Amino acid sequence: xxxxxxxxxxxxxxxxxxxxxxxxxxxxxxxxxxxxxxxxxxxxxxxxxxxxxxxxxxxxxxxxxxxxxxxxxxxxxxxxxxxxxxxxxxxxxxxxxxxxxxxxxxxxxxxxxxxxxxxxxxxxxxxxxxxxxxxxxxxxxxxxxxxxxxxxxxxxxxxxxxxxxxxxxxxxxxxxxxxxxxxxxxxxxxxxxxxxxxxxxxxxxxxxxxxxxxxxxxxxxxxxxxxxxxxxxxxxxxxxxxxxxxxxxxxxxxxxxxxxxxxxxxxxxxxxxxxxxxxxxxxxxxxxxxxxxxxxxxxxxxxxxxxxxxxxxxxxxxxxxxxxxxxxxxxxxxxxxxxxxxxxxxxxxxxxxxxxxxxxxxxxxxxxxxxxxxxxxxxxxxxxxxxxxxxxxxxxxxxxxxxxxxxxxxxxxxxxxxxxxxxxxxxxxxxxxxxxxxxxxxxxxxxxxxxxxxxxxxxxxxxxxxxxxxxxxxxxxxxxxxxxxxxxxxxxxxxxxxxxxxxxxxxxxxxxxxxxxxxxxxxxxxxxxxxxxxxxxxxxxxxxxxxxxxxxxxxxxxxxxxxxxxxxxxxxxxxxxxxxxxxxxxxxxxxxxxxxxxxxxxxxxxxxxxxxx
Length: 613
Hints:
Blueprint: H1 5-27, E1 35-51, E2 60-61, E3 64-65, E4 69-70, H2 79-88, H3 95-105, E5 111-112, E6 119-135, E7 139-152, E8 182-192, E9 197-204, E10 231-239, H4 241-253, E11 265-275, H5 282-287, E12 317-333, E13 336-351, E14 356-369, E15 372-385, E16 396-410, E17 414-423, E18 436-437, H6 452-465, E19 483-486, E20 489-492, E21 498-509, E22 538-551, E23 556-567, H7 589-599, E24 601-612
Parallel strand pairs: 16-18
Antiparallel strand pairs: 1-6, 1-24, 2-3, 4-5, 6-7, 7-8, 8-9, 9-10, 10-11, 11-12, 12-13, 13-14, 14-15, 15-16, 16-17, 17-19, 17-20, 19-21, 20-21, 21-22, 22-23, 23-24
């Protein structure tokens, strides 16, 4: 299959443009540059404890009850109890419920499968090393190497057949996957020329507040950590247009290159290769025949051992990015100084095989004056695709909107701000042709609080999409999802080594889909349905607080933080539990009320120790 000429022209044009701009600087090369080496990064570990994420006595994994007790067979239950159970539960024919009911009455006769499910805790870690090699003043090679990338402490893969005798640790991450103990996440080159900056290789990407493109670097969040971060195989050229003219003039006149760091207008153009050959076997999806071979499959033919798997350009995914930004710091306004950054980041992504054509404009502003500041980011995702359509060969439109704005005041001792954000949601999750997809979360590394988004809604989206591999990309993973929130925060710094933080989160759902966000019962006994939402949209409120200590010239950081959340009605924490009397349950009405009080009040305590270098 020959590549589309129009698709190849765009990146080829960029290469030609860069060659025309950069080759003259090669000719001007002189003595071998001085080589310098630098290393920066951090090691961090975070201990986490949650209370009431799951109920103590009747835990639920999504809509599936979790067995708290275990015996091998119902035959081990005395006949007297079986007869009494059948009399008191005439409509409940489940042997599982009988086993659980017997074990709750006689726990000494059974084994417990899960202990203290209302207390969830773990310890994770990451070492990040970023070596930098500089060749003179113009060329820099940089890498990002992660060691034990968000890996849990301990042996979590049964390396030791008897856990009590464990003496080696696994590389299991928080989501249960096993990762490499050492991972080279990024490696790229930066070349500073008289005309601008060229950067190519696998590199981080960050824009604005980090709602869409977030590099996940450092410790930028007021609460919690960043666990992911974007990395792209990219070539990008960034320049200050006014500087180009001045640079050309300097080269032609033989004068030194002028300092262009104050030129306020910045422009960039770049290209990303997102996918060369997808692992998704489209032909198998189309025919539903497991015997059909695919050029991407690693079956009996092992076809990926030859270059032919690279020949299908239809499944390639490309991305073009365009940036224009005005950045002016220390701008004189009378006898005061003002900083202003404003710009647009535009992304165009396409894939031929799924007929995907997506445009994403993302706007950002950062203004500060006399301690007051306003920051905001707003993006729109528009386009069409067959990649997530409900039926093969059908097209889905995207109409996604995300925004966060904050305003406040800051000086050396205090920071006070008010933040409001929104992520659009779906009232119907891709059930039929013509449905418009709107439910995409903000970036998971843009943290808002510690509980509501980081755990509660993240778990709900995972529960909804876990059985469909094609939709697992729709998990929120802790990002703001299908809601509008407010998040006022206050920080107090009494000295150089201590910072206290407090924040409040309150959130309301955008759209009720009946799956992730449940329909509610009305007081008259009827229930809401699609397009008939009459009850509150309040998801809940959360209070977070923390303190950070900085020692050894800010190389050692210790943070202690915690949060409490009360789930609102729309969170539907009790929608997983049947009401006693309306159906057969293992719990009484009084126990149901206690479950409600527990699971609607969730708390967390967390601590982080980090060494930054």
